[in-house]
Amino acid sequence: MDDSTPHATTPAIRPRAVAGRVPGWARVALAMFAVGWGANQFAAMLLVYRDEDGASSQVVTALFGAYALGLIPALLIVAPISDRIGRRRVVRPVLVLSTLATVVLIIAGDSFGLLLLGRLAAGVASGAAFAPGTAWVKELSADRPTGTGARRAALALSAGFGSGPLVAGICAQWLPAPTVLPYVPHLVLMAFVIAIAWHAPEPFVPRSSDEPRRRSEVREALLSRPFLMGVLLTAPWVFGAASTSFATLPTFVDIGVAPIAVTGALAGLTLWTGVAIQPLGRRLGDPRRIITTGLAAAVAGLATGLVLDLTGAAWLVLPSAMLLGAAYGLVLVGGLTAVEALARPDDLGTLNAVFYSLTYVGFAAPLLNTLALTHVSPETLMLVGIAVIAATVPLVLAARPSRPR
What we know:
77% of the residues lie in helices and 0% in strands. It is built from 17 helices and no strands. By secondary structure, it is mainly alpha-helical. The longest helix has 29 residues, at 57-85.
C-alpha cells in the first residue's frame, strides 16, 4: 500500500515536469502554433471538397473564409475579458475548442452544415486565442528588448498557419480517406500542446480598475495617427496577400501533378516564407519601415502573378508565393510591433484584438477574387491590387513613429 502512491502520481507529474523545462513564452507560443495549424489546415482541403464532393468554387472559398465570421467577434469579445481576468483562464478552453473544431470537420464528410460549423468553431478558437496569446507572449518576454514578444507571437502564428496546410495537403493527396486523415495530425498535436501549455506561467500585470479611463486610453490609441495610417490601412493585406497566394494564384494555371499536395505546399511555402522573413523586421526596427517593406513585397508578388497569368509559366507561382509570403510576414510583425508600442499593459489584449480583426478581413480576398474574376480579367484584378497598395505606402510613411506608452 505504501508504495502505491508514487506509482499513482508519477504519470500526472511527468507532463508538468517536462513542461516546466520549456520557457513560459515558448509554451504559450506553442499553443498559438497549434491553434494556427488547426485554423489553416483547411486551405489544403479546398480541392478535396471541390473534387471529391463536387462543391462549387464559390462554396469552397466561402467555407474557407467563413471562419472569419467566428473569429472576429471572438477577438473583440474575448480579448478585453483576458485583459481583466488574465490570459490563462481564456486560453485553456480555447485549446479544447480548437480540438473539437477539428473533430467536427472529421465527421462532417460532405455535409455543408457541419463543415460550416467546424470552420466557425475554428474561427472562434482562433479569435479567442490569438490576441490574448500574443499579449501573454509579450508579458512573458518582458525581460527582452521591445518588440521581442510581438515577433515571437508572429513567428509562432505563422509557423502554425504554414505547417497545417502543408501536412494536410500531403495526407489528402496520398493517403486514403482524404476528408478524414488530413485532420488527424492536428488532433495528435493538440494532445501534446495541451499537456505542455495548460500550466504555462502567467506573470502578474497590474490591471486598471478604472474602466472608463481604460476605454478612453484604448480609444486614444485607436484614433492615433500611427494606428490609423500605419495599421488600419495595411492590416487587411496580412491575410489578403497570403490567401491570394494559395487560393487565387493556383487558378491561373493548370496544376497537372498532385494538385492537392501542390496547393498545400504552396500555402506552406507562402506562410513559411513569412516566418523566415520576420527577423528582417527586427533589423528594420521602425514599424513604418517594416510595413512599407512588406507592402513593396506585395506589389512585387502581385506583379509576378500578373506575368504568371499572361505567360502561363507555372513556375512563376513559386516566386509570387514567396513574395506574397514575405508581405504577409512583414506586415504582420510590423503591425504587432506598432500595436505593442501604442498599448498600455492592461489594454494590450484589446488592441491586439482590433489589429487581428483587421488582418482577418483579408481572408475575404479569395471569395472576392473569385467573384471579381467572373467580371474582370486576372490582369485587371492584379493591377487594381497593385494600385491600391501603391497608394497606401505614402500614407504609412507619413505616420509618426509610435512611442512606447
